[in-house]
Structure formats: structure tokens, C-alpha cells
Design brief:
Layout (H helix, E strand, L loop, with lengths): L1 E2 L10 H9 L12 H21 L6 E4 L2 H14 L5 E5 L4 H9 L5 E5 L9 H7 L4 E7 L11 H8 L5 E5 L11 H4 L3 E5 L10 E5 L25 H16 L1 H21 L5 E2 L10 E5 L5 H10 L2 E2 L15 H7 L8 E5 L6 H19 L1
Parallel strand pairs: 1-11, 3-4, 3-5, 5-6, 6-7
Antiparallel strand pairs: 2-8, 7-8, 9-10, 10-12
Helix pairs in contact: 1-8, 2-8, 3-4, 9-12
Bound molecules: pyridoxal-5'-phosphate.
Length: 373
């Protein structure tokens, strides 16, 4: 089997997993005041300092969550909940965890959805037009999970300078592939997930600048400085910190390899004369994701045929993979064309081999030939 769906999720790093199991004796509740609790608390706070340092944040600005979906909900609901029907802005190409959260809050906030252009980049003129004096929040992803296209974070920050709007960034697909520095970006809120960077599923974090106040979404005990009730998942939090550390330490090596794999795929498909077009601007995309339009067949058919050939790929967001609706990202970029139903996302890992890429290209070539004859 060839798996090329690493933007959907990655395997857990075995060394990190082993380390966690070796430390499993330390099982205390970080809120307990006895020694076992204090040791667990120390572990938790060590992980918090480590993740904070990797983002150039302070430890007090990190809130651990059950993943990026929760972190995104925490940021968006937390800002909107404190205000009286505020004006907020997001883009049409966000992940479902952002988009559907705003949709669910349309009675509580006035939401403007900004489209992306054909490069996959948010329409900056439309963003500028949308921005108002009373805009409370702008939520924009750093790297798109379907196309890999990076949003111009510095230009967006610049546009917001002088405005009171908070900037929330979903950086799930960025960390480990590029430097994520909250100070340098000038963001107020930033979401991450461990399972996209060889950590476990079900753990993530929200960076929240110390100047920002949010309404808590998960109420309960006073964990996470009252921001999120519930006993902290100390084991997985430590695993996330270790995975982030490793992803950061190995970032250059990993992303160079991912870019090589991406280029190899494009070159192999071109020399095999399999017709395709790249969706979005390949020069503005993260190292590990490429989205290709195959005008000669439907993505649904192609994905099934590839799956039968032992190739695991997806059309974009895994959350929609079961139904395979037209991609909302590609529809925003290109309008209602067949690109939205005839495109596939390839997402790479530094662990992949050249042979795996060749097998993907071969399988695509076989399917193309069968359809043409
Ligand atoms: N945001 C983006 C851009 C994603 O790709 C994902 C992936 O699923 C998420 C958010 C949700 O993360 P999680 O699975 O940790 O809830």
C-alpha cells in the first residue's frame, strides 16, 4: 500500500510513543496537590514551556486542547461570546472546523466570508473592503489543507494594523513545514494539532496572546487557567511537545525531501503524458501538499480505482471524503467548474520513497489508459 494522504493525518513517531510508554508510571492528576500530582504538573508545565518556546510564545499563552477543531472553536466562539453580535471575517477556503463554526454562529455574529483567487490566495482587495472599524475578529488559515497554498500572513497583519480586530490563524498544516513564530506573525490566536506532525490524534493547542480574553467553551474545573476545564491529557500533551520539537529540529531536512517528492510526482506524471493541471499557485504552496486537476475523470471514480490499486489519496478534506461533495476550496478559487469534482490532493511525508511516487504515477497511468481505450 502507498499512503500519500499525510495532510489528513500522519503516523505517530515510534520513538516518541516509546518514550511516552516508558514514562507511563507517572500517572498523577496535575491538579492534585500531593507529590504524584505535583510531578504530573511539572511534566505538563515542561511540555507547555517547550511548545511555547517553539512558537516564540510564553508558557502562559498556551492552552492545550483535544485538537485543532477544539482550538478553532475556542478562538472563534471565545471572541464572539464576549461581544454583542460582532462583525467577524473569515475566508471561503477555511477548514470545516473554522467554516462551520462561523456558520453555526451566524445568529450571534455578522460574518463576512472572503473568497480566494485562482492562486488559492485570499482576495486581499475583498479582505480590505470587508474590514470595518468594528470588526472584532479575522480568522485566516496559514496553509490551506486542500491546496497547500500559503496565505500572506504579513500583509494581512499589516492591513489590520491600527484596527482592533484580533487575528486568528489556523496553522495546522504549517507547523513543521515552515517557521511558525507568533511574535513575528503578530497573531493573537493560533491553532495547532499534533496528529499532522507525527504526534497522536486528539491533542492540540491554542496560542492565546496574554492580552486576549476569551469566553471559555468547555467550562468545568480551573485547568488551563480557567480557559478549558477537564483533566489535562498529560501523556498526549508531552507527546505533542516532543513531536513539535522533532518537527522543528528536522524542518529543513523534512521539507526539502517533501519538495523533492512533489517535484518527482509532477515530473513523472508529465513524462507519462497523463493530463493534469495544478490547482493554485505551486510557488506559494507548502512543501507537503499539491492538488491536481484531472479533467479526464471524476475524483470519486479516480480515488476508488486508486484505492483498489493500493494507493491511499483523498480529494481534500477528510471530513468530506465520505460524501465527496465538490470542494468548497476549489469552488471559491475557480467558481462552479468541474475542477471542484475532478481534483485530488497528494500530501507527502519525508519518510516516503521515490518508488512510492512512481507507483502512484503508474497507477494513475493505468487508470488513464483504461479510460481512454
Ligand atoms: N484545520 C486544518 C487546516 C486541518 O487540516 C485540520 C485537520 O483535520 C484541522 C483544522 C482539524 O484538526 P483536528 O483533527 O486536530 O481537530
Amino acid at each position: 500500500e502507498v499512503y500519500a494522504d499525510y495532510a489528513a493525518t500522519t503516523p505517530v513517531d515510534r520513538d516518541i510513543l516509546k518514550n511516552i510508554i516508558d514514562n507511563a508510571d507517572e500517572f498523577g492528576n496535575p491538579s492534585s496537590i500531593h507529590k504524584a500530582g505535583k510531578r504530573a504538573k511539572a511534566q505538563l508545565e515542561k511540555a507547555r514551556r517547550q511548545t511555547a518556546a517553539l512558537l516564540n510564545a510564553s508558557a502562559s499563552e498556551i492552552i492545550f486542547t483535544s485538537g485543532a477543531t477544539e482550538a478553532n472553536n475556542m478562538a472563534i466562539r471565545g471572541v464572539i461570546g464576549r461581544r454583542d453580535r460582532p462583525h467577524v471575517i473569515t475566508t471561503e477556503v477555511e477548514h470545516a472546523s473554522v467554516l462551520n463554526t462561523f456558520k453555526a454562529l451566524e445568529a450571534d455574529a455578522e460574518v463576512t466570508y472572503v473568497p480566494a483567487d485562482e492562486r488559492g490566495v485570499v482576495d486581499m482587495a475583498a479582505l480590505k473592503r470587508a474590514l470595518r472599524e468594528d470588526t472584532a475578529l479575522v480568522s485566516i488559515m496559514l496553509v490551506n489543507n486542500e491546496t497547500g497554498v500559503m496565505q500572506p500572513i504579513y500583509e494581512i497583519r499589516e492591513m489590520l494594523s491600527g484596527s482592533d480586530a484580533l487575528l486568528h490563524v489556523d496553522a495546522v498544516q504549517a507547523f513543521g513545514h515552515m517557521t511558525v513564530d507568533v511574535e513575528d506573525f503578530g497573531v493573537d490566536l493560533l491553532s495547532l494539532s499534533a496528529h499532522k506532525l507525527y504526534g497522536p490524534k486528539g491533542v492540540g493547542l491554542l496560542y492565546k496572546s496574554k492580552d486576549v480574553h476569551l469566553d471559555p467553551v468547555i467550562t468545568g474545573g480551573s485547568q488551563e487557567r480557567d480557559a478549558r476545564g477537564g483533566t489535562e491529557n498529560t501523556m498526549w500533551i508531552q507527546a505533542m511537545a516532543a513531536a513539535m520539537q522533532k518537527a522543528s529540529d528536522e524542518m529543513t531536512r523534512r521539507s526539502i525531501r517533501e519538495m523533492q517528492l512533489k517535484e518527482l510526482l509532477l515530473n513523472t506524471l508529465t513524462s507519462a503524458e497523463i493530463p493534469f493541471q495544478v490547482n493554485g499557485d505551486v510557488n506559494q504552496s507548502a512543501s507537503h501538499i499539491i492538488n491536481l486537476y484531472f479533467p479526464w475523470t471524476d475524483a470519486e471514480f479516480l480515488l476508488t480505482a486508486l484505492d483498489m490499486a493500493g494507493i491511499c489519496l483523498s480529494a481534500g478534506s477528510a471530513c468530506h471524503a465520505g460524501t465527496l461533495e465538490p470542494s468548497h476550496v476549489l469552488s471559491s478559487m475557480y467558481g462552479e467548474t468541474d475542477r471542484s469534482t475532478k481534483s485530488i490532493r497528494f500530501s507527502f511525508s519525508y519518510m516516503m520513497t521515490d518508488e512510492e511516487i512512481e507507483r502512484i504515477a503508474e497507477a494513475l497511468g493505468d487508470i488513464y489508459e483504461r479510460l481512454m481505450n
